[in-house]
Amino acid sequence: xxxxxxxxxxxxxxxxxxxxxxxxxxxxxxxxxxxxxxxxxxxxxxxxxxxxxxxxxxxxxxxxxxxxxxxxxxxxxxxxxxxxxxxxxxxxxxxxxxxxxxxxxxxxxxxxxxxxxxxxxxxxxxxxxxxxxxxxxxxxxxxxxxxxxxxxxxxxxxxxxxxxxxxxxxxxxxxxxxxxxxxxxxxxxxxxxxxxxxxxxxxxxxxxxxxxxxxxxxxxxxxxxxxxxxxxxxxxxxxxxxxxxxxxxxxxxxxxxxxxxxxxxxxxxxxxxxxxxxxxxxxxxxxxxxxxxxxxxxxxxxxxxxxxxxxxxxxxxxxxxxxxxxxxxxxxxxxxxxxxxxxxxxxxxxxxxxxxxxxxxxxxxxxxxxxxxxxxxxxxxxxxxxxxxxxxxxxxxxxxxxxxxxxxxxxxxxxxxxxxxxxxxxxxxxxxxxxxxxxxxxxxxxxxxxxxxxxxxxxxxxxxxxxxxxxxxxxxxxxxxxxxxxxxxxxxxxxxxxxxxxxxxxxxxxxxxxxxxxxxxxxxxxxxxxxxxxxxxxxxxxxxxxxxxxxxxxxxxxxxxxxxxxxxxxxxxxxxxxxxxxxxxxxxxxxxxxxxxxxxxxxxxxxxxxxxxxxxxxxxxxxxxxxxxxxxxxxxxxxxxxxxxxxxxxxxxxxxxxxxxxxxxxxxxxxxxxxxxxxxxxxxxxxxxxxxxxxxxxxxxxxxxx
Amino acid sequence: xxxxxxxxxxxxxxxxxxxxxxxxxxxxxxxxxxxxxxxxxxxxxxxxxxxxxxxxxxxxxxxxxxxxxxxxxxxxxxxxxxxxxxxxxxxxxxxxxxxxxxxxxxxxxxxxxxxxxxxxxxxxxxxxxxxxxxxxxxxxxxxxxxxxxxxxxxxxxxxx
Lengths: 706, 160
Hints:
The structure holds 2 protein chains of 2 kinds.
Chain A: H1 2-29, H2 34-53, H3 57-74, H4 82-101, H5 108-121, E1 143-152, H6 163-171, E2 174-181, E3 199-206, H7 210-216, E4 224-234, H8 246-252, H9 258-265, H10 271-277, H11 283-308, H12 315-341, H13 345-369, E5 370-372, H14 374-391, E6 395-400, E7 405-407, H15 408-429, H16 433-438, E8 445-454, E9 457-464, H17 471-480, H18 492-496, H19 520-529, E10 533-539, E11 543-551, E12 556-564, E13 567-572, E14 576-583, E15 587-590, E16 593-598, E17 601-607, H20 608-611, E18 621-629, E19 632-638, E20 640-648, E21 662-667, E22 673-677, H21 679-694, H22 701-704
Parallel strand pairs in A: 6-8, 13-22, 17-19
Antiparallel strand pairs in A: 1-3, 1-4, 2-3, 5-7, 8-9, 9-11, 10-11, 12-13, 12-20, 14-18, 15-16, 16-17, 18-19, 21-22
Chain B: E1 10-18, E2 21-26, E3 30-35, E4 49-55, E5 58-64, H1 65-68, E6 81-89, E7 92-100, E8 102-110, E9 114-115, E10 129-135, E11 138-143, H2 145-148, H3 151-159
Parallel strand pairs in B: 2-11, 5-7
Antiparallel strand pairs in B: 1-2, 1-8, 3-6, 4-5, 6-7, 9-10, 10-11
């Protein structure tokens, strides 16, 4: 029992400490942000409290000292300085260490940190007398929904005011729904383009009070009609009931008289429609009221969702769930196959239901494993902070797309490669401050981390605004290391990809950070194992961008099952554009490439039989699967297209090596194995085969033909 | 299978036949023996890699030892079996299926009956043989499969 609680405490503490770290780093950038200080304090307070409860007295005592200082910061007695942040960061690391070791006493280092904190408050006494009352950091602010009517005078543009800026300022204050009233816009003949005819109704749910809202309009107050009304108070504790009905809102707003409302209520239609028909009110007013209703409902729903909160689950349990779903998908495929073969409508019905359920179950399970990449990004803030300090450089990190979700296993395996890349960027990419300013660049370098979805993959790019890569130097280095021949012609891209070779490093000196000739090849290997690709772009003096393209998930994909002779292959559905028939006459053989016209355009296509070295003769009418490979449309001709197949990806054994063009295998309904094609690699391989031929060398596939 | 107690300095072997020759794997490395099942060929791999099979949900490669030894490939006969063994490959343990003409018995060979530095004719590639055992006046080639899959070989493997 005891152990379980202690374990839970530890887990919780790890989370809090991780959060604390990012909070502190944020605080360093915004030292005035009171909510950040509150949250830092809150985090320390929680650790202190639960530490004492679970017998981690040393942690509790230690944290108490820090808390005292933070309390003073919170009260505005002490300022937030970078020294304080650094000290608190090291305290955070110490707590982590103490948590791991379970120590019951403070070691020298911990005492030093405590002394540091005491110095900050100028208190040399060994015991801090005041046992602070520790006020719970509760959120007392009430969320209120306001209805704001903003009707600028028609001549407002002449004062140089842009009403849209005001609206976006409101948007930043909370959840906001804006309805524009356009009924006053005159016919075009009378329209004065320099006049403002539009007014706005804004429904805003915010923690700010009315005065704060008025402040937004402070400079236009004399130039507009402004009314702010409180329409709803969200007290988070009470069971929130549904928001007012449309009629009530309209009455409230005085848009309709009670009599008129009652009159129309007798007819049977949606209230809005009825009111409209009886012409007591314009459509716009109803729309605005409906928007308000929707807005408040949405806010209420969100509140409720927040209360449901989250559940902590052991990752191993999730993994076994995914495995089970994988097996279920395989069995389901078998059932569907059997059902379509049998002529039993009832069985087919069941099979279809099972298929639908399995698909949903699969998608749900996969979505559980999806984690926003932001968790990973936040780890790097610390890394950048520390590294930059170590190297005497000034570096800031900017992130984008932190909400982009990726499979947890992918995220876990991304940590190491990203650390390598960021290290390289700071060590080799970003120059020393003096050098930077001599180039006219901002002294502070920037590392930009971004993630975005692109079809079935996620692209993560790491850019720096450093020195950039110099293709000539890279090439010279590679020649010197004997990686390439001196007379070898390399394109710029090929030069860049040299840094991914094992044993390649350009740093002239070995630093503590990087430059031991390991790193980028390790990155390449880990990205390969995730079935991802690496792209490098760089321009001298401006910076380098490394982009990693990764599949969304490693476990299950949708695929299209195709056959060539006796062999079955799966092509990931995500890359497929369409399937067409192709008779021999339609194909154009030009030199080494086969071309086909489709919808008036000429596309290259590759015979899968050919490129994979499968024997036999193609049927008179082949099917061509048009895919998007390497950014271009390419066809793959196959004998038959069998159908869609939910594909549980199994990795191919290491013993087989890295098989070009094959990304994995899957087990079909009947228990046989089909291979999953990697169309990008196949297209690349085909291109190099053509080069082989041009050089007179025999392509490898000839030997493969059985 | 072996009911008698195993003497301290003897090792259990699973014997199988390729052509007329009797060969053996250490039993400790054998996971299971399967009947022939459909093998999915993997393109762009050497011919002796016959492909992959489904072993209760995991995909494992199958190797034709006859091709590795320069003999014609294993025929589909009623006696043919796939022996699934564990090998050490690049620091990890992986499962590999080995095609054999037929599988025979589990035998116990005293270590004193094993000649660990065999001199053989040109027929068998000695680098894969860890020793020759003698059992009931028969010579048995004891195979060391880690060597078959050693990285040196794997290099040539990808060049196919």
